[in-house]
Amino acid sequence: SEYRITCADSLQDLWDQARSFRDLTGSRRTDAQGRAIVRLSRPVRAKVFVLDTRRLVGDDYVHIFEWQFCRLVPAESLKLETVPQRPEWKPGSLIASGGVVRLRAVASAQGVEMDVTGKARFSGKGFRPYRRGFPNELLAPKVEENETREATLQATFGRLSASLSVKIEGWERKNRRTDLDVLYIERLPRVDYDAPDRGNGPGWLAEGERVEWVAHIRSYGAETRSLPYEWRQDGRKVAEGRIRRIPRDGQAVVRLPWQWTQRRHTLEFIIFPDSRDSVEGNNRRLIYTDALTVGFWIEEKLADYWHDNQNEQNPQNNSFEDWAQWMIEQWNRLMAEAIHPLSPNGLSDRWRLDRVVVVPTGALPLSGGLPSNNPDNRDKTVDIVWGFNCEPDARISDYWKRTPWTKGPVEGTPAFYVDWALLHELSHARYLIDSYGFDVHPDSVKITDHRGKPAVETEEMRAVLPHLNKYRGLMGGGIIPFYDEYTAGALERVKGKRARGGNYNAPSVIGEYIQELPESNIFTFLDPEGRPAANGRLSIWQAKPRPDAWYGKLFEGNPSLEFSLDEQGSVTLPRNPFGRDPLKHTFGDANTVMLFRITAGDQTYYHFQEVSDFNLAFWKGDRQTARYTVRLQPVKRGSHAD
User: What is the reported pLDDT for 450?
Assistant: First the structure.
């Protein structure tokens, strides 16, 4: 990262960069792990200090974990500890065979601690550096299956030293079956998603450009020789041959030269193994040539767990890659089945598994962030990334427990069969928001009725609370496996476009579409019998922030806006009646829902209005004027005592 430290005696001087303003460092860069120590040549006095920093590679976010003002004195003691993969985890002492351990050295003096990892040296018998530029990452030696070996790690900092006792643990392997497995089909050259436009949009290749399709094949359990294969394009054979040799548990690749076109084709790679092959379901892979790409990173112990257990969960699979392809198949099915007004033929895009990277256990993330969301922020060649990591002390999470299942890929499946929650998270990486963030629960409503009574205690409010998001599907809570009209519209809005603002959850463009609102919005309110709420009154409460909750919103106080309805029960609202612009839909602040109170005659009704209807109208072409009809909910009298 690039950084600069400035100071001043007032905020005004700081913003003006005048009078007491001083630039203490100029532009500098952190080390490979994002650390920097600044030593000033002389003492500095100021009332405001500012650290400005930006990333030069990887994602668009900077994560500042610590910034200390220190007076340097000789260290008195040194402490060595492991660094967990996620910030909420505690340091552990168990390392997987051949796994990575990250270490932190902390020096102390006069009761004050300081991280000196960047200045310390680390070692351990049998351990070696994992990668250049990260001296605190050590690779453990391999041990036998089910063996546990004790080891000692050391850190030195000047004249001080510290040690840490750990254990290295091997794991049992169970799957000894012979199997030939077409893992995935990669496309070369690899191109960053934000590469300059060559005629088909940023990140896409130019028409007629020479490419190669590369099929990756693994031979489990035995050496394979003279394996027949063929390529088919749009169902027609275009190439064939034999793979001369694949070593036991090794891989081979087969290449198909091709000229790029943005026009969609299907491409299929098929192998024809002999009778020793134990699983037929992984002998062929079919892709869409213009598909958006997915990259998965998985730690070695977890990949072995998949190979040992996946076939018992799904007999058509025998590896993590097989399960990953099964997930891509389900995702493409959801895309094809999302038939709505804005996607009458299903969603336009398709997905392709373009790479799988197996790393030592404990290695994720490779470039900051979280091991799941940010497996390697340096990689921009795929459109979506996700990482699969072990739990603390290299445990396998119960989330991946093998569970009997015979109902097929429907709602409620165990994750080790179909992980619908993963598709939810990957949809965030594409840029979709949580539609369940439009939900409203009783504790968010603090207004009173005309009698001064809390509205949540009235039958009129009980008729609409809790409010659950209108367009419920994969992003709407409960992980229902389909793309509803709203999320389908948002996906179709970016059809054919590669990743933008990041290929991880969450990119900088997440939810950008909620800002698209028609200039004029005409609402017509009908009572529960379908009659216009003629000459009624509309009161609108805009959501205020609620900083203690995801998508926090609070409706309180007096109405934000008041309108009169005409004889047809209609009223015209401005472009953004939701309030603050731009709209927010994040932790502690979600003003993407309004609370309406409609009074017609002696009847009172409530209604929660989401931004989703505004967005859909905009996408359907109603950018100047959109019309909405709201049929108000009937009130059940006497169901609760007032």
Answer: 83
Contact assessment for residue 250 and residue 265, using Cβ atoms and an 8 Å cutoff: no
> What pLDDT, on a 0 to 100 scale, did the predictor assign at position 61?
65
Residue pair 455/409 in contact by the 8 Å Cβ criterion: no
**Cα 374 to the center of its chain, rounded Å:** 8
Q: What is the pLDDT of residue 231?
A: 98
DSSP H or E run through 606: strand 603-610
For residues 326 and 62, give the distance between their C-alpha atoms in angstroms, rounded to a whole number.
Answer: 35
Query: What's the token pair of residue 550?
Result: 């995801």
Characterize 33-62 residue by residue with b for buried, 16 or more Cβ atoms within 10 angstroms of its Cβ, and e for exposed. ebebeeeeeeeeebeeeeeebebeebbebb
Q: Would you say the pTM of this structure is higher than 0.85?
A: yes
Peptide bond into 189 cis (omega under 30): yes
Cβ atoms of 230 and 279 within 8 Å: the answer is no
What DSSP element (H or E) covers 50? strand 48-54
DSSP for 138-174? EEPPP--TT-EEEEEEEEEETTEEEEEEEEEE-----
Dihedral, CA atoms, 81, 83, 87, 88, nearest 10 degrees?
A: -60
Beta-ladder partners of 138: 101, 129
- HEC string of 244-294 equals EEECCCCEEEEEEEEECCCCCCEEEEEECCCCCCCCCCCCEEEEECCCEEE
Compute φ and ψ for 456, nearest 5 degrees. -65, -15
Residue corresponding to tokens 């213009």:
290
Number of other residues whose CB lies within 10 A of the CB of residue 175: 19
Specify the pairing of strand 292-299 against strand 384-388: parallel
Question: Per DSSP, what are the bridge partners of residue 355?
Answer: 295
Under 8 Å CB-to-CB from 52, ≥6 apart: which residues?
A: 3, 4, 5, 6
Strands (E), 221-250: 224-233, 236-246
How far is the CA of 202 from the CAs of 199, 283, 579, in angstroms? 8, 34, 35
Residue 551 falls in which region: left (phi positive, over 0), alpha (psi -120 to 50) or beta: left
Q: Mean of the pLDDT values across residues 619-642?
A: 85
Backbone angles phi, psi at 311, to 5 degrees: -65, -30
